[in-house]
Design a protein that fits this description.
By secondary structure, this protein is of the alpha/beta class. The protein folds into 5 domains: about 100 residues, no CATH class; about 160 residues, 3-Layer(aba) Sandwich (Rossmann fold); about 100 residues, Sandwich (Immunoglobulin-like), CATH 2.60.40; about 200 residues, Rossmann fold, CATH 3.40.50; about 80 residues, Immunoglobulin-like. Helices cover about 25% and strands about 30% of the residues. It contains 12 helices and 34 strands. Strands 15-14-16-17-24-23-22-19-20 form a 9-stranded mixed beta sheet. The protein has a 5-stranded parallel beta sheet with strand order 4-3-5-6-33, with helices on both faces. A 5-stranded mixed beta sheet has the order 25-32-31-27-28, with no helix packed on it. Strand 9 and strand 10 form a beta hairpin. Helix 1 packs antiparallel against helix 2. The two termini are about 45 Å apart.
């Protein structure tokens, strides 16, 4: 047995007080008058023995009452194994997992159990101790230490949230809150289901860490993990393939479950699927694009699971009313082959402009810009084209036969692509077409053995640096490139080795030319899918082309079915950078607008799928992983108030000492009141 305050044991000297009282009070003799002294000696001997016994018992009761009262102030305890008892004030940080997976459980959910356990933990500490409550929401009011009453009030306000945090991030917040606390002991508690993908604690011996895993017997979950399109961009009346990845994190197979695709609140496709336990499957939903503009879409599955927040996946995409193409020509005029090509295509708005009449501010409104045999590129045009491509635009370059290669190469070097070297006037035959690349992957139903491909009478040689990420679309026999593609920033650069005239090559009149340019223009369209993750994709970029018609002093807002808020925002050209941080709590499709009647875009927000994987660290797993003296493991079936108190301070005995002290005082009173000796 040990004492928390051993200095109080000096007060045991007070035992001398009842002894002195006994010597000077009970030793006094009282004169008694008798009429008959016949039995005086016999009576005197008998009563003297009874009085002596009574006085000794009273003395003993007083001494023991004082002894146990002193011991109560010294606070004796029996240390538990590997416990380090620290006297003085304490700071306690309790992490309450309020993620969606804590909704598991029939009847009482894991979250409700966790909240009750947090209350029991707080009850184990003194009202003078300091507390911090931390949840996955990382709320500002939870980043400081409060008293017990405030802690319990905060605890009642907590609800299940879509936010997900790793335990290392939680631990960092706890240490920040406890760092400046003027206390003698700092304790960290983790009350969670301990999903494997969030458990990454690093044990710090300066803190005592308590782990309390709460788990449900249920463990079946099937969810939509992600969606994407087979084609980079979509056009009106096009047949589209949407790929859907579905995962099963349970131990049982799912057979013939159903998923449904809804676009603008209309069912577009329905399909059955099956998936094996702890596996995934990718299925295809086919639908036809029947309208232009923003499409608000969701994929739903009907499988009953332990958690249901991940049964719906929201996303949006835009189908352009038209594809804007800008052809930049020399002052002498446009190109007959490009004009003839786009004249036959519907859904395209083609503008021909001379290089000396450009409005640079309108460059970002185009999905494709074609440089048609310019003699040279000015530094101003090169700078604007570089910004255009980096921001997501597509640039197709046809050089002039008399090009100033230095001006071209200044732009190409800045974009880190291959550059032009010299004009080769030898005839070259094309022997390869890259049908695996997006530009040509759906042009041919089948490729004949003797496929007719373009040739060139004169063409530019290109450098062949390995770090440019070049994808050759058409290749000359011998390995030189005729047309190549490069990904630059968020955009694309298509580099052609021949001028766009019949003297240099037959490419302008070849059958491969129209689908190639057509597809390049489509691939530069608005094909991005907006499917963001709440709490993860806090910053996103949206292409806004209609801002010129709106008041500059107005701000953008996001509005869903249940909430509306103003996100952080910054406009750079036609790009709007949004920052939502922790403002968004509910999954769904949100309208982006300045005027609610004229939404400029729609964004799909989804709950984090981290919580969808129902794999947990058991108590035994945690003990093997964190087998350290400063780590304590709690059992959720135990009454934590006394259990935590014993772990934190050993087996506490001061209450028993106080009870025994009162009991001996009561014994003294009873002896004096009811033991009559005279």
């Amino acid at each position: 047995m040990s004492f928390l305050y051993p200095s109080f044991l000096l007060a045991l000297g007070a035992i001398a007080i009842p002894i002195i009282i006994h010597l000077f009070y009970f030793r006094r003799f009282k004169r008694v008058y008798f009429t008959n002294v016949k039995f005086l000696r016999e009576l005197k001997d008998e009563r003297s023995s009874r009085n002596k016994l009574k006085h000794l018992l009273v003395l003993l009761s007083r001494m023991l009452a004082l002894v146990f009262l002193v011991l109560a102030f010294a606070q004796p305890y029996i240390p538990t194994a590997n416990s380090k008892i620290v006297q003085g004030s304490k700071a306690v940080s309790i992490y309450l997992d309020n993620s969606f997976s804590m909704n598991a459980g029939s009847g009482v959910t894991l979250f409700e159990r966790a909240r009750r356990k947090a209350e029991e933990i707080a009850a184990a500490y003194s009202p003078d101790d300091k507390f911090q409550l931390i949840t996955n929401d990382f709320e500002g009011k939870h980043q400081r230490l409060v008293n017990k009453d405030e802690f319990l009030a905060y605890l009642e306000e907590v609800s299940v949230s879509p936010a997900v945090q790793t335990m290392s991030d939680v631990q960092l917040r706890q240490k920040q809150a406890l760092a400046d606390a003027d206390v003698q002991q700092k304790n960290l508690f983790y009350v969670s289901d301990f999903q494997k993908n969030i458990v990454n604690l690093t044990i710090d011996t300066a803190y005592t860490t308590y782990l309390l895993p709460l788990q449900s017997a249920e463990g079946q979950n099937v969810y939509v993990d992600s969606v994407w399109f087979e084609q980079p961009a979509r056009t009106l009346n096009e047949q589209v393939q949407l790929l859907v990845r579905i995962k099963n994190s349970g131990t049982g197979a799912v057979q013939n479950s159903r998923m449904e695709l809804r676009i603008n609140n209309q069912t577009k496709a329905v399909r059955d699927f099956s998936v094996e336990p702890n596996a995934q499957t990718t299925d295809t939903l086919n639908f036809s694009v029947t309208e232009t503009g923003w499409q608000r879409a969701e994929v739903l599955i009907t499988e009953s699971s332990t958690v249901e927040f991940d049964n719906t996946y929201f996303f949006t995409f835009e189908v352009a009313e038209r594809v804007n193409v800008l052809v930049i020509n020399p002052a002498s005029g446009g190109n007959a082959y490009l004009n003839a090509l786009f004249k036959q295509l519907t859904g395209f708005m083609v503008v021909n402009q001379a290089e000396n009449q450009l409005d640079y501010a309108k460059l970002p409104t185009n999905q494709l810009i074609i440089l048609n045999q310019l003699r040279s590129l000015s530094s101003g045009l090169s700078s604007e084209l570089q910004n255009y491509v980096n921001s997501g635009g597509s640039l197709l370059i046809f050089p002039s036969a008399t090009a100033d290669l230095a001006s071209y190469n200044n732009l190409l070097k800045a974009m880190r692509v291959n550059t032009y070297t010299a004009l080769n006037k030898n005839r070259r035959e094309t022997d390869f077409i890259n049908t695996r690349q997006d530009v040509f992957n759906d042009v041919f139903e089948r490729i004949p053995q003797n496929l007719d491909l373009p040739f060139a009478n004169s063409s530019y040689d290109l450098t062949a640096f390995a770090n440019t990420g070049e994808e050759i679309l058409l290749r000359f026999r011998g390995g030189a490139s005729l047309v190549s593609k490069y990904n630059v920033g968020a955009g694309k650069v298509y580099l052609c080795a021949v001028p766009l005239d019949l003297q240099s090559s037959n490419l302008p009149s070849h059958a491969v030319f129209p689908p190639m340019v057509h597809k390049m223009a489509l691939l530069g369209g608005k094909g991005k899918v907006y499917a963001l993750i709440i709490g993860k994709d806090n910053n996103t970029e949206v292409d806004i082309t209609a801002t010129a018609t709106t008041a500059p002093d107005e701000v953008f807002k996001l509005k869903g079915s249940a909430e509306e808020f103003i996100p952080g925002q910054k406009m750079v050209g036609s790009k709007l950078f949004l920052s939502v941080n922790n403002q968004l709590k509910q999954a769904g499709v949100y309208a982006l607008f300045k005027t609610i009647t004229q939404p400029m875009a729609y964004l799909g927000f989804n709950y984090n799928r981290t919580e969808s994987v129902l794999e947990y660290e058991s108590n035994a797993d945690l003990k093997r992983r964190y087998n350290q003296p400063t780590v304590k493991f709690l059992d959720d079936t135990a009454e934590l108030t006394s259990l935590v108190g014993q772990i934190d301070r050993g087996v506490i005995l001061w209450k028993w000492c106080l009870i025994l002290s009162l009991a001996f005082l009561l014994a003294e009173i009873l002896l004096l009141r009811f033991w009559k000796t005279t």
